[in-house]
Design goal:
The protein is mostly helical. The chain has 3 helices and 3 strands; from the N terminus they run αβααββ. This is CUL9 protein.
Length: about 70
């Protein structure tokens, strides 16, 4: 979901990304055609996933603005 959002937006402030992911989870937009009832993620969960994706090289930070993430 994180990468799917960033693929569309190209770059996004980390706070906005967290809010977008949580909003999508609450609306059941995790995967096209599937809804996960009762699934809820928290900001700590999303930030943990973001850090993992940064470490794996899927995401990167802008040099001049490290709070902005790019896919």
């Amino acid at each position: 979901l994180i990468t799917r959002i960033l693929k569309v937006e190209k770059q996004l402030h980390i706070d906005n990304l967290v809010f977008r992911v949580i909003d999508a989870c609450q609306k059941g937009e995790l995967r096209p055609g599937l809804q996960f009832l009762g699934f809820c993620c928290h900001s700590v969960d999303v930030l943990s996933c973001v850090l993992h994706l940064l470490n794996q090289g899927y995401l990167r930070r802008q040099e001049e603005s490290p709070h902005v993430l790019e896919y």
